[in-house]
Amino acid sequence: MKRYFVTALLVLAACASQPEEIATAYVSPLHYKNFDCEQLEMEAERVSRRALELHASLKDTADTDEVQMGVGLILLWPTLFWLEGGDGAEAMEYARIKGERDAIERTAIQKKCAIEFQKTAAAPSGIDQQAGLAAQPSVAATSPSSRIALPPAEYKPLPVGTVVTYDTWSYTVTTSDGYNIRFKTNDGNWKKYYAVFGKHGDNVYLSGEWDSSGQDWESDLDAGSKAALETIWPLKVGKKVKLNSEESRDGYSGTPNTRPWTVALEVVRAEILELNGLLYSTYVIQEHAVSGAVIGSNYGTDDPEGYLETKWYDPESGLVLKSVKEVTLGPKKGDRKEYSLVRVRFLRPN
Questions:
Q1: Is CATH 2.40.360 what the domain over 163-345 is classified as, yes or no?
Q2: Is the pTM of this model over 0.85?
Q3: Number of helices and strands (H, E) in the chain?
Q4: What are the sequence ranges of the domains in the chain?
Q5: What would you report as the CA-atom Rg of the chain, rounded to the nearest whole angstrom?
């Protein structure tokens, strides 16, 4: 009996892998460094077509092996000898194609090419979650929490017309002037970033996310805060800045309400972030914000509030790839919201 058990293990090991289980082979983005956007688009289409073909073929092979293994174990051992077995040339090509796709995506982001990287909510016929360039099986590579060392990162403004889509919201850049970026969100709010991490405009703190009053708060950064934000660049682990801001709104009785905020920013580490099956070298920035009580409120319920937001910033693209925000003070303490990048579209230069 012992001998048969060992044999079963050996035969199981010979089954072909499902495409989702095939690890990505590394392909250096340097291979595409001399490609322009049009050439990258052509490569993306080629890689996508071939990935879909290989995915279908590999899945069919793996499914057949699994069925034959089940029949063999339950009914008759000789059936197992008909297994196609193991991972062959197609699996090796699929691993390489996945690596080419990753390299193309990273190069396209760096060159600000108009190539969409789209994650669909549900993929048909067993095709994986990322549909922008190719089928996107899971990546068994470096841990997302791996600490790394990065060189100082210079400020990289987003061009006008850039459309950034996260899984819970999106925005379009309308103005880009030095450290000032102005954009409109998909829900119609106008907001501004200053040096990426300074935010002002409509409902930029907890207002609009957890505030049920239905009133918009408007905020601005003072000159001292803007000057402090500029000193965080180039990004480097250990850098810290402190900002002061004030929100205002029209009170219900016609008396203006104001609320001061103190925001502390710190570059806490550099690490590898795994997102949609891709690995990114990111700086991690923490934003700890605390408000004062609302001045001018007639209700006496607008107590101080606060939150801690962690952002993963990709210096190659100039984008925040992921954010996790947790309320640390106030009536909504413990509430948590997060978002991550789905796709970005850069306007191609004329």
A1: yes
A2: no
A3: 4, 12
A4: 2-126, 163-345
A5: 25
Task: Report how far Cα 76 is from the mean position of its chain's Cα atoms.
Answer: 49
pLDDT in tens, 76-130: 334 333 334 445 788 888 888 888 888 888 888 888 886 654 433 333 232 233 3
CB 205 within 8 A of CB 219: yes
What does the pLDDT look like over 266-280, one tens digit per residue? 999 999 888 877 788
Please report the DSSP string for 206-239 in residue order: STTTT--S-PPPEEEE-HHHHHHHHTTPSB-TT-
* Cis ω for the linkage preceding 234 (within 30 of 0): yes
| Residues 251-285: b if buried by 16+ CB within 10 A, e if exposed | beeeeebbbbbebebbbebbbbbbbbbbbbbbbbb
DSSP secondary-structure letter at 253? T
**CA–CA dist 80, 89 (Å, integer):** 22
Token readout for 107 is: 């190069």
Question: How far apart (Å, rounded) are the C-alpha atoms in residues 179 and 192?
Answer: 10
Phi, psi (deg, nearest 5) at residue 293: -70, 155
Q: What length does the chain have?
A: 350
CA distance 273 to 146: 8
Long-range contacts of 83-89 (CB under 8 A, 24+ apart): 83/11, 83/14, 83/15, 84/16, 85/14, 85/15, 85/16, 86/14, 86/15, 86/16, 87/16, 87/17, 87/22, 88/16
Q: Write 175-180 long-range contacts (CB < 8 A, 24+).
A: 179/155, 179/226, 179/229, 179/230
